[in-house]
Amino acid sequence: MKRNQSGFTLIEIAIVLVIIGLLLGGVLKGQELINSAKVKNLAADFKNIPVFIYGYQDKFRALPGDDAAAASHVAGTNATTPGTVNNGVIDGRWLPATPASDESSLFWQHVRLAGLAAGSTNPADSEYQPRNSLGGHLGIQAGSTASIQNLRGSYTICSENILGKFARQIDTNLDDGNTTTGSVMATASTGLVMQGAASSVAANSILPADDEALYTVCMGF
Asked: Fewer CB within 10 Å: N-end or C-end of the chain?
């Protein structure tokens, strides 16, 4: 007498494997889209800040943060240290040491009061200094102020706490795809390290093995 054998047929197993493959493919594609959106948001920060500068200059014929007439232009305040107001330079570090008085900090107050950017206009607020979509600090300074070695430009924008895989994509989108050359570079140094550095820090080449490491990305323009 034959016993009835239970189990899956080859066709049933094949169907299950196809379904699993489709599900995994969907998950991976979804993650790819999420990462792509993050990179676009991060890259947008570097594109928007020059727009803030040019918009403010077009409106007031002055440089935000360095505007001696900020009080009358936008009811803003003037920097007291470091540097000289109205000298055409955004003095101070991109991550300000003294937010209430650095031009690089008051830059944000001026462009926000001018309606060019959103955010708090009170330097004393804990959320005053802008952050990127990953939570890292974002800022601007004069190109002559120490940042990353061999980075050129009148101004330097820096954004920190960026994963290596995103830093490479940002560089590819905005520059030459090499994080040690061109107008976009990356460094393993954090904003606080750069804030206290007497000279520019070295750029770092980011390899696939560094995808999960954190970097500060800077752009000169």
From this structure: N
